[in-house]
Amino acid sequence: MLNTFLIAIREGLEASLIVGILLAYVAKTGRKSALPAIWIGVGLALLLSLAFGAFLSFTSHELSPSGEELFAGVTSVGAVTMVTWMVFWMKKTARNIGKELHSKMDQAVALGSFGLISTAFLSVAREGLETSIFLYASFTTVGTSLAPTIGLLAGLAFSVTLGVLIYKKSVRLNLSKFFTYSGIALIVVASSVLHKGLLDLQSFGLVPRGIALNWALVLAYLILTLRPFTYTLRHKTPVAK
């Protein structure tokens, strides 16, 4: 439950912030006519994310036991790779993401409705697809009990509510600190997904068997990925703008 709750909060808030930045910018620049196009792009991105999650679930259930092990293992390792890359990308760009999205919106306006829909779609779809594959991998790790689903729904509700409050400026949040601490939490969650993925690949025979090897790889992952975050925590974190 805690795994899916943390994933939903982090990824849901990222998506909420991106949507909020797009909406605030078009309102500020007097381009409210662009709002329908933005919402269409956001809606399409959400539909794609849900479809991708359903595809992963359907595919895994249609495979043979050995094929399911391979699929689950490859998907888990792929999810860890994608999430780790996104965590570090957001850590680097969190302070400037507003300017980046504003620049994309300025270019999109010149292209008309299609450009606006595409910009909103691509901005949100990246988060949605990442969330789908990571949640799928996490569900295979924690099992099929009701608790992970409750954690997912609670995390999404909390992240969307917080995103709305930030958009309305009812709440102020130091984004640099948030993405630092939530990045650490995601990496810890990812390590458990990596552990399960390696077990699946070992059962399939794609990775040499051995509990010691498995834990050594997980420990190496944690050391390499957490080091930049521990360095950040030992130094003053600039306030995100």
Describe the 3D structure.
With 241 residues, this protein is mainly alpha-helical. The protein has one domain. 85% of the residues lie in helices and 0% in strands. The chain is built from 8 helices and no strands. Helix 1 packs parallel to helix 6, helix 2 (35-62) packs parallel to helix 5 and helix 3 packs across helix 5 (113-142). The two termini are 32 Å apart. The relative contact order is 0.18. Residues 237-241 have low confidence and may be disordered.
Strand content: under 5%
Helix content, binned percent: over 70%
The ordered H/E elements are: HHHHHHHH
Overall tally of structural domains: 1
Helix/strand layout:
Blueprint: H1 2-28, H2 35-62, H3 65-93, H4 97-111, H5 113-142, H6 146-167, H7 175-204, H8 211-233
Helix pairs in contact: 1-4, 1-5, 1-6, 1-7, 2-5, 3-5, 3-7, 4-5, 5-7, 7-8
Q: Top keywords for this entry?
A:
mainly alpha, 8 helices
Provide a quick synopsis of the model:
The chain has helices spanning 2-28, 35-62, 65-93, 97-111, 113-142, 146-167, 175-204, 211-233. The chain is mainly alpha-helical.
